[in-house]
Amino acid sequence: RIDRNTGGIVIAAKTAEALRVLNQKIKDREIDKRYLCIVHGTPKPAQGTLEGYLFKDAVKNRVYVTSTPQKGAKTCATRYKVLQSKNGLSLVECELITGRTHQIRAQMAAAGYPLLGDGKYGVGSVNRKYGETHQALYSYRLRFDFPSDAGILEYLHGREFQVDEVPFQKKYFG
Q1: pLDDT in tens, 29-39
Q2: Which of 3, 28, 118, 164 is catalytic?
Q3: Is 41 exposed, middle or buried (0-12, 13-18, 19+ CB in 10 A)?
Q4: What percent of the chain shows pLDDT beyond 70?
C-alpha cells in the first residue's frame, strides 16, 4: 500500500495465493522498499535511523510520532540517507524497516524535516513558496530477497525494480 499522492512502484498480486505470500514477505521484511523524498532543511546526521512509536488518530486520518510507548501505538523505524542538499532542501533516500501508515511523512516531520508539498505534516507557507501541492515522496526501488520459500513468487527472488526518473528529483536537483 502506498499513500495517496505518492508516486512510484506499486506491488500487485493477481491471485489470492500470490497476495498471501506477498503479504507474508512484506511482514517478514523480505522485500527491500526504498523511497526518495525531498525534505525542508538538511537532516543531521546525514544518515541514520528514525525510531519511535506511531499512534494513529483514525478520526483525523493522521498519525503522531512519540518517543515513548503509548497505548495503541506501534513501533516504527525508517533508515534515511541524505543524497543531496541545495537551496534549503534535501533529497533523501528512505528505507522502511517497518511499514506504518504515513510513516516516512510523519517521522521526517517529527524530526524537523517535513516533506516538500506535504499538506498534512508539512509547512504550508514553505510549500506555497515552491508551489507544491503533493508530497515529494516516491517509491523508486524494490528488491526481493527471499531467504525462505516464496512459493508462487519464487521467480522474483533476487530481482530488483527501479524507476529511471523521479520527477521531483529532476526538478529540484537536476
Answers
A1: 899 989 999 99
A2: 3
A3: middle
A4: 96
